[in-house]
Amino acid sequence: MSLRLYVPGDAAALAVGADAVAAGIAAQAAARYIQIEIVRNGSRGAFELETLVEVESAQGRIGYGPIDPHDVAGLADALFVGGPHPKRLGRPEDLPFFARQTRLTFARCGITDPQSLDDYRRFGGLKGLERARTLGPIAIVEAVIQSGLRGRGGAGFPAGIKWRTVAETAAPQKYIVCNADEGDSGTFADRMLMEGDPFLLIEGMAIAGLAVGATKGFIYIRSEYPHAVAAMTRATETARAAALLDAAFDIEVRVGAGAYVCGEETALLESLEGKRGLVRAKPPLPAHRGLFGRPTVINNVLSLAAVPHILADGPEVYRDFGLGRSRGTMPIQLAGNIRNGGLFETAFGVTLGELVDDIGGGTLSGRPVKAVQVGGPLGAYFPRSLFDTPFDYEAFAARDGLIGHGGVVVFDDTVDMARQARFAMEFCAVESCGKCTPCRLGSTRGVEVLDKVIAGVARDANLALIEDLCHTMKLGSLCALGGFTPYPVISALTHFPADFGVPQRVAAE
Amino acid sequence: MTTGTALEEFDPARAAQIVIAGADREGALLPILHALMEAFGHVPGEAVAIVAGALNLSRAEVHGVVTFYHDFRTEPPPRHVFKLCRAEACQARGGEALAVYAEAEARQTDIAVEPIYCLGLCASGPAAMMDGRVVARLTPARIDALYQQARP
Prior knowledge:
- The structure holds 2 protein chains of 2 kinds.
- By secondary structure, chain A is α/β, with parallel strands linked by helices.
- Chain A has helices at 11-14, 18-31, 72-81, 96-99, 117-122, 127-135, 137-147, 159-168, 189-196, 198-212, 226-241, 265-272, 301-313, 315-319, 352-359, 393-398, 417-431, 437-455, 459-476, 480-484, 486-495, and strands spanning 3-6, 36-39, 53-57, 60-64, 88-90, 175-180, 216-221, 250-255, 296-300, 322-323, 326-327, 329-336, 342-347, 369-374, 381-382, 407-412.
- In chain A, the strands form 4 sheets. Chain A has a 5-stranded mixed β-sheet with strand order 2-1-3-4-5, covered by helices on one side. Chain A has a 5-stranded mixed β-sheet with strand order 13-12-16-14-15.
- Chain A is globular, with a radius of gyration of 23 Å.
- In chain B, 47% of the residues lie in helices and 12% in strands.
- The interface between A and B is large, with 61 and 44 residues.
């Protein structure tokens, strides 16, 4: 029997030399006449351990990391024969970063061979779809409603209600669209899932198709994710060959073209139709008139990927995780200047402080944390004084923030928050689709006014102007790009006034 | 990902072939433009006319789409493209200082430094794409090595 090793094929591993590590291990084995099999698994999600090489043993899988290509020669003995090595981590699942997680959506990611449908089945895959087939459309929708699953893309709308609307809308053609245009900086859960467990997304979409009577699905993946595009394309081909996808429900992978705004659901639909990614006014809702004017379920990758578990194990198991109106688990992404960065799936309710200090281990630079941006480029910057905020849709909203797609970006004390506020406006100006005036013009004026503030020109008057402008953008924009850009700007100003040349305000409570 | 290497010279007949091969799909325009980019590295005005004719769209509509999306070029691409992430998570890991270095070192080479907003490597930044290949945990030394490899 040959020795089985695991070298991740996830982009986070490839970007630090995983292919060279795999080639090096193969060469070392060949030179010693040792038969090995290298599985290119997904990433388990601890990015600082990449490339995380694992070898099967009587004690389970033993991890070594981070392994650079030049480490391989010195690692070969430990891998093939066993024995001590400075980078030996023991069983990865025993490491605190993994042991503390509750992995429902990411249960298989990093464990299995992502392109093996047999592996997927062996580790519990397709049970949700089988159960869905016995339940029928109405009961599937009911289960998703019962689970309390809310859209993981950012808006947090109850997924089951969306499905029910599409199910109840009569039409000759309906669509399932998966929004895999994960453009928020600090987020990578969609990418990891598509590369590390693509059949889960296919299963989730197939269940959605059954539930609402759709026969065609599209996965719209951003072009910045070439490995996810390749993984999903291959997985859909495998699924088709295995009759998991057929004329009753088929999936096509489509690639975006570098427009951030296409992560907004109606802009994404326009883009899929072959047009500029202009945001549509709502109503009509996509559930009534979506892709090509047909009723469409459009959900984020993580929403659809949560569904197989809900069906397989029952909605109450999922619902029992979490708190308040935020049920289930959230794949949180720890990013930026953080020591233990990566994917951390856990029940809602963990506090921001636990995530950053305890699990994340503070900053990578070793300097104090100054600010944390939660929810991507449109999310608020939180100071340390808000670290007791629990990870929950409502708790973040109550503090003028949002959890968005679950990205947490940490900054140390070298960051200049006036610059970050300016960047938020600049990013909005670059990425605005141009359809509505508050976003298109407001963002450009915002950059200009913040430049004056930074230069110290009529500071008080210009700060008043920024607040007024943000108010207009927030209430007057068609979508979250213009509507939420004020979050990072205003939060930076509120919590870090000194960076704008304003003395710290005393809280008015 | 298209770069200046291994691309075909633009040829209207070949372009028409690519367009016709993709014209039957629902919402065919983006996949067709991607296929043209893949072949020629850019979508010149001549191609816009071919696409418009095949899909029964106006040239203005196709031009609008080509120029809306950051990925589509109307001119042939530089020989090497270094797309460095400039988004928040990479900023927090020293990405802006590295961008200054990357741009300075790329002067007088055939490497073009372009911004990209997020490669999903946000706990391994600064991250970039060198001619379509992802690279992370970048330092000035690693950029030197990448530039060295890119030179003929």
